[in-house]
Specification:
A ten-stranded mixed β-sheet has the order 15-27-26-23-21-20-19-16-17-18. Strands 1-2-7-8-9-10-13-14 form an eight-stranded parallel β-barrel, surrounded by four helices. It has a two-stranded antiparallel sheet with strand order 4-5. Helix 12 (311-319) packs across helix 13 (335-344). Helices cover 28% and strands 16% of the residues. The protein is an alpha/beta fold and 753 residues long.
Length: 753
């Protein structure tokens, strides 16, 4: 009870502070293209069901705490044996609770919509039996199950309303025929409930059931909403498909004020997961006076590639597309439509940045195009990056060029060319075989077809496959020419790797090559200050001193802290530091555990701090960030205070910098940084597994390196093999007679993709 009271008080305080921000923001908004011109509703399905078990007290509370003040709480109503309405996401209780362990012998088999289903059903239990003994669990098996042991109890409709006092309560009433077979009336329940709680919306996919509620609710403010299911499914009352009912919206208007449709009814997506066009449904419904609500929104599922795994972009296509807006969205992650509506909608394309933190690309817009290519860099500029980057590789004939990996198997289709014979193992670089850039001349490298990298292909999360081979590999010189002509950029970042190996074993001085190209491009004197040179090797940065470049030292492993003498040492050869995200916010089992304070410590020593690597794919983020890349970026910028973010998706980060909520004196809750350990403390430590060993402390000895060796090809160094002649096709396919042993080596090397 103490935690319950605390939750209510905390929620009330948050809502009070949020309301003043919300009102002022709404007054400033231009009119919406919704039916009545009001902002589209944010409807929290089962509360914040993308994080906590659906319909739990914590899920509803989190939705209230992190969403717009007028958030509507959605409840899937099920009826108990004694007629009590509970909020539960499925007619089968065993899908999202531990009931099969609590009442292991009380499963049943019933016909639901003509299909026999075996499981545990609410009609076989009294409310007391369910509320006192059954705990909710995460019904979506792709989400964290770590709260399943937290004893989250089933909630009644009445409890959800009285505990949260939401601006809107949406009751989804399904399976009336099933409950009638068990002498229970969903109609009687909702009429009775309306005398005790304020119901803003009632939805059902049954025409006759919803029509039967029209008269009882005619004199109330409760809105009746007809829910469309799959277009090929049959509506039981009319015996028509839901797709055919779309042609008769006037009939629906006779008993309902709105429709709830899957988002695919509005935006069409082809078989390759790209948007094609939007339908006229919203306009058609608005024409007859029906509101349109869209469902099936979740941050942790695949969405159309057009959105680059940014769920905010998807919401904007439904609420701020330009010629239409839905009247509300039903989401498992209500924080995201809240920020989309209040912070990003109606944003001027030329809006000024509201924070100083730099957006630094990682191999250009490599989340959408093959990294380091001309098209990736061009789009990074168009997307609003402040700094574009080039990870320098060296060709056999000493030309520096931009590509994310020295192993060309990772980034090109070289394995399908005559150059496959150059496969070798260079243990100083990697333990598996590869085809390395320093084995080919620049003219040969230019002809290779680039490949987009898919870091999360194991999760079937691919990047922009339509453009997986787009663009051309560019030299450092061409990269700098592009950057010089882009007036929106504040600078360039050049990353140098493998310098010692290239000097000693290949006779190539990458530092000299980079300096020469920079000088030729005019990055000298004051203009040199626009250049950031990044390396994990202090010897490289020491070799580049004296040119006025900003030298950036990258710590490529997670650290728990840094000694003062190590900071003092870094300052002798660098002005900035790059650290990985886990150094700033380490996690335990995917949940943030603490804020280390390393950023502030480095900044207090006059070092700039850039964080890497930001990616939009939800599996790249700690659970605390709600599978929302904007929430993550905001937490590092506004929470940790980093001076820049290095990202595969510069468009998302650049849009974040310009969002209108950042101008507000009091940030709304959906634009406040997350608090580490806020969620972790609710998890039973036993489910997190063994305690992880702490990350190392960065000491001065870790930075000690001998000076970079000069590039001299001595007699003991074997010159690189001659580049074989190309076949008539620059990218000839591997012949069917290729040896099995060679193919095995190719597969092993490809594992690095």
């Amino acid at each position: 009870m103490e935690s319950f009271n605390f939750g209510i008080v905390a929620t009330a305080v948050v809502l009070f502070l949020q309301l003043s921000v919300f009102v002022s923001a709404q007054n400033a908004k231009s009119s919406w293209l919704t039916l009545d011109g009001s902002p589209p509703l944010v409807i929290a399905r089962g509360g914040f069901s993308g994080f906590y078990p659906s319909s739990s007290f914590y899920a509803y509370s989190l939705a209230m705490e992190t969403s717009v003040p007028d958030v509507v709480l959605w409840c899937d109503v099920q009826l108990t044996k004694d007629g009590v309405g509970i909020c539960f996401p499925d007619i089968k209780l065993d899908n999202s609770s531990d009931i099969k362990y609590v009442y292991d012998k009380r499963s049943s088999t019933y016909a639901v919509d003509g299909v026999k289903i075996t499981g545990w059903f609410s009609v076989d239990f009294t409310a007391k039996e369910l509320l006192s003994a059954v705990s909710l669990s995460q019904g979506d098996y792709t989400r964290s199950p770590n709260f399943d042991s937290s004893q989250f109890r089933i909630q009644t409709v009445y409890n959800v309303f009285t505990q949260n006092k939401p601006a809107g309560l949406w009751l989804s009433l399904q399976n009336d025929a099933f409950y009638s077979q068990h002498n229970l009336s969903m109609r009687s329940f909702v009429i009775s409930a309306s005398r005790k709680v304020v119901i803003s919306h009632i939805s059902s996919s049954d025409v006759n059931f919803l029509r039967g509620l029209a008269r009882p609710f005619a004199s109330t403010k409760t809105k009746l909403v007809f829910q469309f299911l799959d277009k090929d499914a049959t509506e039981p009352s009319t015996n028509q498909t839901y797709g055919s009912l779309l042609m008769n919206l006037s009939m629906i208007k006779a008993f309902a004020s709105g429709i709830l449709v899957p988002k695919s009814y509005i935006w069409l997506v082809d078989a390759t997961l790209y948007l094609t066009s939007h339908t006229s449904l919203v306009a058609d419904a608005h024409k007859v006076g029906l509101e349109v609500f869209a469902s099936d929104f979740a941050n942790d599922v695949s969405i159309a590639y057009n959105f680059s795994y940014n769920p905010v972009a998807e919401y904007l296509s439904f609420i701020d597309y330009g010629d239409f807006s839905v009247d509300g969205v039903l989401s498992d992650f209500p924080i995201t439509p809240s920020e989309a509506r209040e912070c990003f909608a109606h944003m001027d394309a030329n809006a000024s940045p509201q924070v100083k933190s730099l957006v630094i690309s990682n191999n250009g817009a490599s989340g959408d195009y093959p990294g380091g290519t001309d098209v990736a860099n061009q789009h990074a500029i168009q997307d609003g990056a402040d700094v574009i980057d080039c990870t320098v590789q060296m060709s056999k004939d000493g030309i520096p060029f931009c590509l994310s990996s020295v192993n060309l198997l990772n980034t090109t289709l070289i394995g399908q060319t005559e150059f496959r014979s150059l496969l070798s193992t260079v243990t100083e670089i990697q333990t598996t075989p590869g085809i390395f850039s320093f084995s080919l001349n620049w003219t040969d490298i230019q002809g290779l077809t680039p490949v987009i990298r898919n870091p999360y292909s194991d999760y079937n999360l691919l990047r922009n496959p339509k453009y997986r081979n787009a663009g051309k590999i560019v030299s450092l010189s061409d990269f700098l020419d592009l950057a010089k002509n882009a007036t929106s950029l504040s600078g360039v970042l050049i990353q140098i790797n493998n310098a010692e190996y290239l000097a000693v074993k290949e006779g190539l001085s990458v530092t000299d090559a980079v300096t020469k190209v920079l000088d030729k491009a005019g990055y000298t004197g004051p203009k040199a200050e626009q250049v950031k040179i990044l390396s994990t090797d202090s010897s490289v940065l020491k070799a580049m001193k004296g040119k006025k470049y900003e030298l950036v030292y990258q710590v490529d492993e997670s650290i728990r802290g840094i000694e003062d003498n190590a900071i003092a040492d870094i300052k002798t050869f660098a002005q900035s530091v790059v650290i990985i995200k886990a150094t700033i916010f380490p996690d335990n089992g995917g949940f943030l555990s603490v804020a280390t304070g390393i950023v502030k410590k480095l900044q207090s020593s006059k070092l700039h701090v850039y964080a890497r690597l930001f990616r939009n794919e939800f599996v790249s983020q700690a659970y605390d960030f709600n599978s929302d890349p904007i929430v993550e970026i905001n937490s590092f910028v506004m929470g940790a205070g980093v001076d820049g973010v290095i990202t595969d998706f510069p468009k998302s980060a650049a849009q974040y910098k310009r969002n209108s909520c950042l101008k507000l004196k009091n940030l709304p809750v959906y634009m406040q940084p997350v608090q580490p350990d806020h969620f972790l403390r609710l998890i039973n430590p036993a489910v997190l597994g063994p305690v992880q060993a702490p990350s190392p402390l960065l000491e001065a000895s870790d930075l000690s390196e001998p000076p970079l060796s000069p590039a001299v090809l001595n007699s003991s160094t074997t010159p690189p093999a001659e580049t074989p002649k190309k076949s008539p096709s620059d990218q000839a396919q591997i012949s069917a007679s290729a040896s099995l042993s060679f193919l095995a080596m190719i597969v092993a090397a490809a594992l690095l993709l």
